[in-house]
Fold these 2 entries.
Entry 1:
Amino acid sequence: MLQTSEQDLTAFNTLGLSARAHALVRFQSQEQLPSISTLAGDYSSIFVLGGGSNVVLASQLDCLVIKVETRGIQLLEERPDAFIVEAQAGENWHEFVQHCVEKGWWGLENLALIPGTVGAAPVQNIGAYGVELDQRFDSLTAWDMQTQQLMHMRAQDCGFSYRNSVFKQSKPGRWLIVAVRFRLPKPWRPVLGYPDLQRYPGLVVGAAPRSAKQVFDAVCDIRRQKLPDPAVLGNAGSFFKNPIVSLEMREGLLAAYPDMVSYPMEDGLHCKLAAGWLIDRAGWKGRNRGPMAVHDRQALVLVNKGGATAADVAALADAIKIDIQNKFGVTLEQEPVTVS
């Protein structure tokens, strides 16, 4: 029989918000899945908690919180064109990427130092420095809490789009991701189109960098220069998605702001704007609102100066969204999930 307990979640969310769970259960092995489903029937809502890096938690959570703590990494298959690597959902994402680089299973190095767990990565369809998770995805195993079945899901089943997936769109708590498999390409080719990588000293030597480890180290260094360590200053990483707009809207904005940062989309009809640039240009970098602030080095990151609540986060985020809409006509969308 599974046991639940009250739990202080302050240390389990990277924003460092004061929060408590009325009931928490730790998921540590697949044998627990049927019991977890039975237990979940006693609650009106469920929240699956991984590394706590992409959430804004209310002060009191009355739902059943399932904390994912499963571990394990293995090479399932080496094919002529790829390595197929599996990681359990509770593995720390950055440590998993580092392990792959050290083993010679390359292709995830651009995603280094992203906080969170492996199981949370497909939910958000994480991406950074020119690589998106769905580009390296093979399949996953998830427990359907409704049907009480393990499901083997390919990319087409996951509904991946920019920072989105079927898991994010479904009713919270329906899916409990158990393990994720990645297809890491052979031969390895570096992805260096992102401006920060192009500018990084010594990264590109001749036609290509010397190794995936070099890219990994560069990404880690760039992120550490730009982003605060959640252990030192509470934050949820990038707080807003980069907005996608039409080419026509982009041209209109460029006429007014020639230095605006934007990236073309593959469809040839839209482009992605840099949310951080918009927030910085609007004068929010370094500004405080109560115990929350916009980071003074990266306008895309909201930080907890101490003692903040979900209401404080919402107040700052809403003020920024309104200002960006008024100044640029662009709608910003929050990236972290709010759990109330």
Entry 2:
Amino acid sequence: MTQPVLSGRGLTKRYGHVTAMENCDFDLMPGEILAVIGDNGAGKSTLIKALSGAIEPDSGEIKLDGKTVSFNSPIQAREYGIETVYQTLAMSPALSIADNMFMGREIRCQGIMGSVFRQLDKKKMRQIAREKLSELGLMTIQNINQKVETLSGGQRQGVAVARAAAFGSNVVILDEPTAALGVKEGRRVLDLILEVKSRGIPIILISHNMPHVFEVADRIHVHRLGQRLCVINPKDISMSDAVALMTGAMKPDEIGVAA
């Protein structure tokens, strides 16, 4: 049996008397796009924050490539090759594309200029940023020194996904990547997600856009009341049944899905 790239067992997180996640299981398989769907307040964000190091679960276990890991910050998760693109994009509009790509992991010049004077190797960072954008087919962005605030919503999302793909050696997590985009730009981001997948990087996609989910996902993790309700195959289950499972109108056994 294939071993999950990233898995969680018995993950629980409480905030006082509120249980955001209880005894939750999770599995991301190699090279797949796993969509995570759930109603508002179902606990999707808590699960993703636990997997990306933004919060620490009160109990449970997270494994990466079969080895137990514990993240106390998103920076630590990044060191393990887990990159997250949040809905807010976490980008600095006043900085250039290249500066945003390397924010928090800038490359210093070699020799005394880098080690003592901490001078940044801007040329190398621009070169790598241009290569990464080109690899993912983002050729519409001509000027790597362009400020992010001058880009369209789709282009900003593209830069954020390219940044994650460039440094996410193990897992890329995308939180509502098409939420604020029009049809054309949303389409472009979906193509970008498929391009990242083609490079062998497994993706966790959190989305409310069911047509997008059913178009690109290999499997769908249905999250309800702080737990994994079931995992479905979009080729076997209709969109309306997936929504019924998500909202509680239907139970997994009613459509022959194992909980």
